[in-house]
Design brief:
alpha+beta; 5-stranded antiparallel beta sheet; 9 strands; disordered N terminus
Length: 447
């Protein structure tokens, strides 16, 4: 059993990782010989280590088809130590719906625990979740600590999944950075109202197929329709009053000579235009109401940000300091949280000249600042993991600087930074910085 995350002094938990079976870990010489071939075969996707740890912590493990047999034959064990109690939980690929759990605080034999209850306990232990309606889910929070490279989790600091809507990133980030969850819920409700409005427009028979109204176009279309109706009403009134007018228009190829048919055609056009104008008016009013709510939300967010200035400034200072320790003044950096009409907006910026690895190091600094901020407040665990995809294309100097910074920062903050690296990359970094301090807790090889 490898204890890869140290106990948190004075609080709850520690995570341990137990690879069971020969396929999970081999001796170091075999690993060094096979790692390069393994890298070529698997690309820069999620490593088995990260997938196994995620699986033990209540996730799916993101098992690829080629690994399903290994997965079904394996088990992963985590151990939490704190407050005089040790909780050990084992989850098997053969029966992923439950775990075998044991606590040193009782004489009972290990018992079966459903994954949902395990997630609830982890949410309380690692993130301080209480079960309130406006809280984020445990898994949405853990996704920022075990980012999934296979699904774009390392592409954007703000999103843990490439297809994650921006509004869905707000609940977990608000929890981790200590923002108001009620305003996050208001932002989600506003976004849902906008989606409903767009869906209603697409299904409204009174609107032309494919027409989508925005705040600006609704007002413009409403004015245009009003003008068209006024003109058509005048034409209809004159047509009904003057039969000779209809005859003249008929000669010119206009209205039918039959007065009844002429007025009926005009009436049909008027009815269609009025129905369309009524629909546009409804959506113009709805857009105006949503705009009012958005402005109100933005002002509430501004007020909340002012009230949380000290904590957000501390988080931004962490981001800036981490970037400065790695790059000096060549890359000015800041983490800004701003008010927008969809709620909070996070802007982690790492400036300077474009180059390889800038996006990866922006995410690295953001995650480290996030983890430290949440851990200080008791709303996040005492570990952070980055998989090898983050370092795959990183220049060796940047990779060494990141690992050195993580080692020093986490020693101060009493948390641990866990990183998965290919053996050649680790050797390259070690050659660049022989004084780099790290503990190699596990070596994995290709089966």
């Amino acid at each position: 059993m490898q204890d890869i995350i140290p106990a948190r002094r004075g609080r709850s938990s520690v995570v341990g990782y137990t690879p069971l079976g020969e396929r999970w870990a081999r001796d170091r010489a075999a690993a060094a010989a096979s790692t390069e071939a393994d890298t070529d075969r698997r690309g820069i996707g999620r490593s088995r280590f990260a997938a196994a740890l995620d699986f033990a912590l209540g996730g799916s493990g993101n098992v690829r088809p080629a690994d399903r047999q290994d997965f079904a034959e394996s088990s992963t064990t985590v151990r939490f130590v704190g407050a005089g109690e040790t909780v050990t939980a084992t989850r098997s690929g053969a029966a992923p719906g439950e775990l075998s759990v044991h606590s040193s605080g009782t004489d009972a034999e290990p018992w079966a625990l459903p994954v949902a209850e395990w997630q609830q306990w982890l949410g309380q232990t690692l993130f301080g979740l209480t079960g309130a309606d406006d809280e984020p889910s445990y898994r949405s929070l853990m996704a920022y600590y075990l980012r999934d490279a296979d699904h774009g989790g390392l592409n954007d600091p703000i999103r843990h999944h490439a297809k994650q809507p921006a509004v869905e990133s707000l609940p977990p980030l608000a929890h981790l950075f200590g923002l108001d969850p009620a305003l996050v819920e208001a932002a989600k409700t506003l976004q849902a109202s906008r989606r409903h409005l767009r869906s209603s427009q697409r299904g409204d028979a009174d609107l032309p197929n494919g027409q989508r109204l925005s705040d600006a176009t609704a007002s413009r279309d409403l004015a245009t329709l009003t003008a068209e109706i006024a003109t058509l009403e005048l034409e209809r009134a004159e047509a009904a009053a003057d039969a000779s007018w209809r005859s003249t228009r008929a000669v010119a190829g206009g209205l039918a000579t039959d007065p009844v048919a002429a007025t009926a055609a005009l009436d049909a056009r008027l009815a269609a235009l009025k129905a369309r104008r009524a629909a546009v008016a409804r959506y113009a009013d709805a857009h105006a109401e949503l705009q009012r709510q958005a402005l109100e939300l933005r002002e509430s967010v501004r007020s909340d940000l002012r009230g949380r200035h000290d904590r957000l400034t501390a988080a931004s200072n962490l981001f800036t300091r981490y970037a400065y320790e790695m790059f000096g003044p060549s890359r000015p950096a800041a983490l800004t949280v701003a008010a927008r009409d969809h709620g909070y907006a996070f802007y982690p910026v790492l400036g300077g000249e474009p180059g390889p690895g800038v996006a990866a190091m922006t995410l690295f600094c953001f995650d480290l600042a996030m983890a430290v901020t949440a851990h200080r407040a008791g709303t996040g665990p005492d570990f952070l993991l980055h998989d090898r995809a983050l370092y795959a294309d990183l220049p060796v100097a940047d990779a060494a600087a990141a690992l050195d910074l993580a080692a020093r920062a986490c020693a101060v903050e009493d948390i641990q930074y866990i990183v998965v690296l290919d053996q050649p990359k680790l050797a390259e970094i070690g050659g660049y910085d022989p004084a780099l301090s790290y503990h190699e807790c596990a070596v994995l090889s290709a089966p």
